[in-house]
Write a structure and sequence with these properties.
The complex is a heterotrimer of chains A (310), B (283) and C (364). Chain B is mainly alpha-helical and 283 residues long. Chain B is built from twelve helices and no strands. Chain C is built from eight helices and 20 strands. Chain C is elongated, with a radius of gyration of 25 Å. Chain C has 364 residues and is an alpha+beta fold. Classes of the chains: A mainly alpha (310), B mainly alpha (283), C alpha+beta (364).
Chain lengths: 310, 283, 364
């Protein structure tokens, strides 16, 4: 390859960091190792401990927390064991809501990313700037803004009533709809940005070649462009799905008490009334396991597509 | 590449028109407008209502700065001031530390040879992005409680440093990948030692990436609610936890004023980061 | 006898790989003389750039040594070698001014401030860019950046200057002008230049000597004239200029001489390295411009009969492929003259002749 020497091309080349890799990486290893890897391991251990009153634990091994999650033994624990549906349903509902948030974000985000990436360069960088702002604006403030907007006495209801279109406020706040809207609104920029990045790198000569070979507009989109930018689409889906699944702010501020998601369930064990740390640790472990499985599939799909590419 | 078709005069112009239109899809423009409307409408409405003179939160009563006055001088002013100072101290320190750590890591990961455990290290650096925030929050809380670490500003700072590392790492490593290693070779060729090559050549070229990384880490720390909420001690508040506490009691107009102020800070920081990256690209 | 500037002593380079390690250099040895314009010429992947980077110190050697005026520099870091490089894409530091770029090496060598200023200014004058000292590299044209890269590498007065395809990013006209300039700067400074290129015309025009490389090995070293006129083997013959390789039959004649026939036509007598035992087939080369075409109607002695396959008009020359009866074809290049006498058409029967002095023997 001519031109600038690529770092990959010269493996033997002496780089200025050679012999110093250990010292350069040590801080990352230590900080992330001690403050994240070890805590997750401790949390894993914690999920097998016995609950003490007032938020503490007793250091005796028990499967109590997982038993509580999966198995129903009645109010006094003396009935025959049945599958406990309460928590599984919370997980299922969270899963569905995260899934739909991902779908809605994709349906709006893909055309937006496409439109941005095919705009003239000047307006393109302005549009990118516009998407970046909500991405970095405090999620709490964005969620509060949404809460303000859709409240019973919020501007939407006030305006609709002022124009006489409705007689009494449409109930939006504290519904599953509000949570869904909140998740969609929270993570929409997370979908747009990676898709935008991959469409911007997409070589439109491929589309021209398809058109040249008698392919129609929509067929070109689905058979040529989308398969090519798939890594960006999958990255966007992951970036929406994972934080949605563990979301706390949207269900808490927009959903109220009835629309519990995993995040609220966990929070209640530590900050709220329940005070059951082992149970909270167990719920977190289950959530983490699900997400690691999703990420594993993601990594698998990435290496597969990379393998096919070469 | 498609083989060249025999060119006919009439067809050429038709194809030029078709080419221009080929990238166009019906409805995409409208969806884009809708997307921007959804993203901005709530923020803009909150901004507008923060200047509302009316006591009622949703009825427009004329322009006024009274809620801003309340933010700075009202009953809750002291509480928000303290929270803001905490937030700034934590965000600046977390951003500085995580940027230094991320810069060192990026140098090793991008410029270093392949070594055993390189992909594991890459996974480790990005781990805070993969673990859901609520899980990180729980794990960190349990960790601090087990080792008996006092929960306060320091515990929040430590937790923030961890999840700021990947955010700082991203733009720094991207920038470093964009700098051809030929500049370092030229430096070495002109009698610079490895240390001089880093200080005089690589570091100045990395500055835009390092600044973007610092700003991102700063914003991420400033914005964090979930982890902070878990690891903060009683009575220690950052701006987001203070706002959350206030919102729990109902949205008052001063919350909208604070939100507008924070929104402005975010926009300013994003703009700075945007300008830096543009200057960086021109170099 | 001129001094040896660089001695490349059995240098081999292997890029390790689990399944197929790449042998970029297979143990090459040669001298580069003091004050010489020496060119490493070869197609991409031949090992010429690897060798240059080994001399500069950017790659470590798998086997062998590099000696600079008698000192083994093989294990020195790039910053410890009194050798400077002009990079292909110039690699001017984008954050430093032109002046600071040129002064960079001098500063690292801890020259005193007056010396640095004087030397840098002199270098900028040498490249006729004295007034550009305050500019940033991004404000310069490609040709100007090229000259600054040259000045920067020359400023510390290296014992050897290495140039890695420095002209390849320039357009044709500028490239031709820069050839002259590079050559005159080499003569002015008296520094040994080691120049890497894949462009044979560039190599022929500038070099005192050329090493033709292919496949990690040196095929031939010599002056441009030697390499063009007496290519050592098929590769060199084909890579430098265009060549017709003919399989001729040699029959022993007096002494080491042999009589050559091609298509049963007597094409001349040549001297071989050793005496022939009997009739043998050997490869000979004839350059296209040494071949003469005449109409089939003309009476020509010892002519090979052929038919014109195609004719291309190239401005100064006309080039034609001639089909020979035994399925072979040869390339002929004729200089166009004012009378436009080279008017052959496709399908014309022609007579192909060349002088016996135009025949070159090739090894293997």
């Amino acid at each position: 390859m001519a031109g600038m020497a690529s770092p990959k091309g010269n493996k033997a080349e002496a780089s200025i960091v050679d012999g110093r890799l250990g010292i350069l990486l040590l801080p990352s290893w230590v900080v992330i190792g001690i403050l994240l890897v070890i805590p997750v391991l401790i949390m894993f251990v914690y999920s097998f401990l016995t609950q003490d009153f007032r938020g503490g634990v007793i250091w005796t091994f028990t499967l109590e927390a997982y038993d509580q999650f999966f198995i129903d033994r009645g109010l006094f624990g003396d009935e025959p064991a049945q599958l406990e549906w309460t928590y599984i349903l919370i997980f299922w509902r969270s899963f569905l809501q995260a899934f739909f948030a991902m779908i809605f974000c994709l349906l709006i985000g893909f055309p937006t990313a496409y439109f941005m990436a095919t705009s003239p360069p000047k307006s393109r960088s302005f549009l990118l700037f516009l998407v970046t702002i909500p991405y970095w604006v405090n999620l709490l403030i964005r969620t509060v803004s949404m809460k303000f907007l859709i409240r019973d006495t919020g501007p939407i209801n006030e305006w609709l009533m002022a124009f006489g279109m409705i007689d009494e406020p449409i109930r939006m706040i504290n519904t599953a709809f509000a949570v869904q809207l909140g998740l969609f609104y929270s993570y929409l920029p997370f979908m747009v940005l990676p898709i935008y990045a991959s469409i911007e790198r997409y070589n439109f000569v491929l589309s021209e070649a398809a058109a040249d070979l008698y392919t129609g507009r929509w067929t070109t989109l689905f058979k040529v462009l989308i398969p090519t930018v798939k890594p960006g689409i999958i990255a966007g889906c992951i970036l929406v799905f994972i934080p949605s699944l563990g979301a706390f702010l949207a269900p808490d501020l927009l959903g109220g008490a009835k629309n519990f998601m995993i995040g609220s369930l966990v929070e209640e064990q530590f900050k709220g009334q329940a005070g059951d740390w082992p149970f909270g640790a167990a719920v977190s472990m289950i959530l983490l396991t699900i997400i690691m499985i999703v990420l594993l599939f993601y990594a698998r799909s990435q290496t597969n597509s990379a393998g096919r590419g070469h | 590449m498609p083989a060249a078709k025999p060119i006919q005069r009439g067809v050429v112009t038709d194809m030029a028109v078709a080419n221009k239109k080929m990238k166009w899809y019906p409805g995409f423009r409208e969806i884009t407008l809708a997307c921007f409307f959804i993203l901005y409408a709530p923020l803009i409405i909150v901004m507008i209502y923060s200047f509302n003179a009316s006591q009622s939160i949703t009825i427009w009563g004329g322009f006024s700065l009274q809620w801003y006055e309340e933010v700075f001088f009202g009953i809750e002013a002291e509480k928000f001031k303290k929270a803001t100072i905490n937030s700034l101290i934590i965000a600046i320190m977390a951003a500085v530390v995580s940027t230094v750590i991320a810069t060192a890591a990026a140098l090793a990961m991008v410029r270093g040879k392949a070594f055993k455990g390189k992909s594991l290290t890459f996974g480790l650096i990005n781990l805070p992005l993969m673990v859901p925030e609520i899980v990180t929050a729980v794990a960190t809380l349990i960790f601090f409680s087990v080792i008996g670490f006092d929960r306060g500003v320091l515990s929040i700072l430590l937790a923030h440093i961890v999840f700021c590392i990947p955010f700082a790492y991203l733009p720094i490593s991207a920038r470093l990948q964009g700098i051809s290693s030929i500049y370092e070779q030229a430096g070495r060729d002109l009698y610079a030692t490895p240390g001089q090559t880093f200080l005089l050549i690589l570091f100045p070229l990395m500055v835009p990436g390092i600044l973007s990384g610092f700003l991102l880490a700063f914003i991420i720390s400033l914005d964090d609610f979930i982890i902070t909420n878990f690891v903060k001690g009683a009575g220690v508040e950052t701006l987001p936890t203070a706002i959350f506490g206030a919102v729990k009691q109902g949205i008052k107009p001063n919350i909208m004023a604070i939100s507008t102020l924070m929104l402005t800070v975010s926009i300013v920081l994003v703009s700075i980061s945007y300008l830096i990256s543009r200057i960086g690209r021109q170099n | 006898m001129t001094k040896t500037a660089l001695f490349i002593d059995g240098v081999a380079k292997v890029y390790p790989h689990r399944t197929n390690p790449v042998r970029a250099l297979k143990g090459v040895s040669f001298d580069i003389l003091d004050n010489e314009f020496f060119t490493l010429l070869g197609p991409s992947g031949c090992g010429k750039t690897t060798l240059l980077r080994i001399i500069a110190g950017f790659e470590d050697i798998t086997e062998g040594h590099v000696l600079l005026y008698g000192d083994d520099i093989s294990s020195l870091a790039p910053n410890q070698r009194p050798v400077n490089t002009v990079f292909q894409q110039y690699a001017l530091f984008p954050h430093l001014t032109v002046f600071e770029n040129v002064a960079f090496g001098l500063r690292r060598l801890n020259r005193d401030a007056d010396d640095i200023k004087q030397r840098t200014t002199a270098m900028l004058e040498l490249i006729r860019m004295a007034e550009y000292g305050d500019r940033k590299p991004s404000e310069l044209s490609g040709g100007q950046q090229q000259r600054v890269a040259l000045a920067r590498a020359l400023a510390p007065s290296p014992k050897v200057l290495l140039l890695d395809e420095p002209l390849s990013a320039l357009d044709l006209k500028l490239r031709q002008a820069m050839r002259e300039e590079l050559k005159s700067i080499q003569k002015q400074t008296g520094i040994t230049f080691v120049f890497v290129t894949h462009d044979q015309e560039e190599a022929l025009a500038m070099s005192d000597r050329i090493a033709v490389m292919s496949n990690g090995e040196v095929q031939q070293i010599g002056s441009p004239r030697e390499i063009y006129n007496n290519p050592a083997n098929h590769f060199v013959a084909n890579f430098i200029g265009e060549a017709n390789i003919l399989e001729a039959t040699a029959t022993p004649a007096a002494g080491k001489k042999a009589k050559l026939t091609f298509n049963n036509i007597d094409i001349g007598t040549v001297e071989l390295p050793q005496k022939l035992d009997g009739e043998t087939n050997i490869s000979v080369m004839v350059r296209p411009e040494h071949i003469h075409l005449s109409p089939a109607s003309a009476k020509t002695k010892n002519a090979i009969k052929g038919r014109v396959k195609d004719v291309s008009y190239l401005g100064t020359d006309t080039q034609a492929h001639i089909d020979l009866p035994n399925q072979k074809e040869i390339l002929v290049r004729m200089q166009n003259n004012a009378l436009e006498t080279n008017s052959f058409d496709v399908g014309d029967d022609v007579h192909v002749t060349f002088s016996e002095n135009a025949i070159r023997l090739l090894e293997d």
